[in-house]
Amino acid sequence: MDSKIEIILLRWWQSMFLSPEQLREKGITPAPSIYKAQLKRCENIEMAMLTDGFRDLWIRLPDEISLSNNPVKIEYWAMIAVALVYVRSNSDIKLAVAAGRKGGGNKSVVSELRFSQLQSAKTPNELLRRLRRILQQVKGNISVLALAQDIEEWFAEYGKLQPCRADKRINVRWVIDYYRAASGKSIDLSDFR
């Protein structure tokens, strides 16, 4: 995802979540509240594609994306639109790190079982269902752009006949992030890239 697209995506998310004062400072028009409401009610990717919030994001994207007839690209952006309405505050925390952090007590915020279900998602709709639940459990306090990049990588791997190297797969990165956060160790993934 290039920086131009990241800016578009971040501004789209900000239009729904920042206060009117913050939006005014950034020169962003507030999104109608129905965008979030419609996207939160989506049970699957196809429903998301029919919402005003998704259309608003889709229209903002560069022509090489928005004029594409590639159904996987459309699914990918619809998934991002739905997932991002569950991110309440943009932080620098990645999804798997937030999931692996200790909650009240000695257990991770997201159980190993639920996290493994996210990793084993085989279809976009299954990923959406698992992702939505985890985003709610981490209270939506993660990085908007890191989540979008994770979804982008999942879709890049989705449907490939020949899997990429294990150390480059999103599921492996999620596991490393999750268990490092669960163990309390600092996270520096530069060695794994």
TrEMBL record:
Q: Per the database entry, which stretches of residues form a coiled coil? A: none
Q: Which InterPro entries match?
A: CRISPR-assoc_prot_Cse2 (IPR013382), Cse2_sf (IPR038287)
Q: Which CDD domains match?
A: Cse2_I-E
- Give the source's domain of life in one word: Bacteria
Check the record and name the Pfam families matching this protein: CRISPR_Cse2
In Swiss-Prot or TrEMBL terms, this protein is called CRISPR-associated protein Cse2
Q: Which Gene3D superfamilies match?
A: CRISPR-associated protein Cse2
